Amino acid sequence: MHVHVNAAVSADGKLSSRQREQIAISGDEDFARMETIRAEADAVVVGVGTVLTDDPSLERHDESIGSEPPARVVADSRGRTPTDADILAGDRPTYLLVSAAAPEQRRRALERAGATVVVAGEDRVDLPEAFDELTTHGVSHLMVEGGGELIFSLFADELVDELTVYVGSMIIGGRGAPTLADGDGFVDEFPTLKLRDVSRLDDGVVLAYDA
Ligand SMILES: NC(=O)C1=CN([C@@H]2O[C@H](COP(=O)(O)OP(=O)(O)OC[C@H]3O[C@@H](n4cnc5c(N)ncnc54)[C@H](O)[C@@H]3O)[C@@H](O)[C@H]2O)C=CC1
Ligand SMILES: Nc1nc(O)c(N)c(N[C@@H]2O[C@H](COP(=O)(O)O)[C@@H](O)[C@H]2O)n1
């Protein structure tokens, strides 16, 4: 499976503010670029932290791009996704990746709301195992939109093939504000990237890396 992480950060590396509400860091051109990456993907994944704060639809907003809208995926160890979340609306498949710690009642509620529940891992979603399961559902190109906890785990599990980051011209600040890769952080054996391209967009830059 090809895994492409795409996100937007402020000039000081934040995904959002300490209040964790959604902030438009991207301008119109970068949101359009994000749409083209969504259109190339078989599925788009976010962590449940992003579902709880942003309630994204992961819709293709511009229907002229691409043919088949991507499926939606949430990494959600305990099945905390609300059953009325936008990510469950409509007919496209939604895969809820949960761990064995997700209460049976929550799993059933999410299935009733239309999700396909994939169990992988004991206490936390085992991402390599869950992604293997997604390939059996036809997902060979996966876009990751965030947030920082999920992105860190993907680097820790060496699952990332490609990273594109829009760096917007604003400062958000705050030691508790999410960054591109949060989690426990690396103290050695830092993942290294190969810079492939740098381009100006809106009032910022897009950095494209191979991982
Ligand atoms: N600027 C941007 O491009 C984007 C910004 N965001 C922002 O990111 C913030 C949310 O990010 P986070 O709080 O970091 O949450 P997150 O979206 O990364 O979700 C983390 C949650 O995912 C679940 N999870 C299951 N298995 C996991 C695993 N193996 N590794 C890691 N997590 C796993 C856990 O319940 C964990 O708490 C929000 O403020 C949102 O607005 C989110 C997406 C894009
Ligand atoms: N690429 C990007 N730039 C920003 O400035 C952002 N705030 C985000 N946030 C993420 O975009 C997604 C929006 O989803 P919907 O269009 O509502 O489906 C979602 O993943 C946000 O967290 N991204």
TrEMBL record:
<feature type="region of interest" description="Disordered">
    <location>
        <begin position="1"/>
        <end position="20"/>
    </location>
</feature>
<dbReference type="GO" id="GO:0008703">
    <property type="term" value="F:5-amino-6-(5-phosphoribosylamino)uracil reductase activity"/>
</dbReference>
<comment type="pathway">
    <text>Cofactor biosynthesis; riboflavin biosynthesis.</text>
</comment>
<comment type="subunit">
    <text>Homodimer.</text>
</comment>
<dbReference type="GO" id="GO:0009231">
    <property type="term" value="P:riboflavin biosynthetic process"/>
</dbReference>
<dbReference type="InterPro" id="IPR002734">
    <property type="entry name" value="RibDG_C"/>
</dbReference>
<keyword id="KW-0521">NADP</keyword>
<feature type="region of interest" description="Disordered">
    <location>
        <begin position="55"/>
        <end position="79"/>
    </location>
</feature>
<protein>
    <recommendedName>
        <fullName>2,5-diamino-6-(ribosylamino)-4(3H)-pyrimidinone 5'-phosphate reductase</fullName>
        <ecNumber>1.1.1.302</ecNumber>
    </recommendedName>
</protein>
<dbReference type="InterPro" id="IPR006401">
    <property type="entry name" value="Rib_reduct_arc"/>
</dbReference>
<dbReference type="GO" id="GO:0050661">
    <property type="term" value="F:NADP binding"/>
</dbReference>
<keyword id="KW-0560">Oxidoreductase</keyword>
<feature type="domain" description="Bacterial bifunctional deaminase-reductase C-terminal">
    <location>
        <begin position="2"/>
        <end position="207"/>
    </location>
</feature>
<dbReference type="InterPro" id="IPR024072">
    <property type="entry name" value="DHFR-like_dom_sf"/>
</dbReference>
<comment type="similarity">
    <text>Belongs to the HTP reductase family.</text>
</comment>
<dbReference type="InterPro" id="IPR050765">
    <property type="entry name" value="Riboflavin_Biosynth_HTPR"/>
</dbReference>
<keyword id="KW-0686">Riboflavin biosynthesis</keyword>
<dbReference type="InterPro" id="IPR011549">
    <property type="entry name" value="RibD_C"/>
</dbReference>
<dbReference type="Pfam" id="PF01872">
    <property type="entry name" value="RibD_C"/>
</dbReference>
